[in-house]
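Researcher: Re-running this chain for the archive, since the previous output was lost when a drive failed. Same request as before.
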Amino acid sequence: MITFFVPFALFVLFLFNTLTNRLCLQTEMSKERQPNVFRTINVLITILLISSYIEIIYT
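Model: Regenerated structure tokens:
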């Protein structure tokens, strides 16, 4: 199961980073604020992926 989930998780993180970059460009967000937005979204998506993996393992 882990051999499927790790590439899936990397793909999801890449996809969300791409979407976050588009959001920052479209809203013309300041350069000082962009790292905080990326960090917040990456941490939240990582928590979501880890909790999904744990739920899959124990069901």
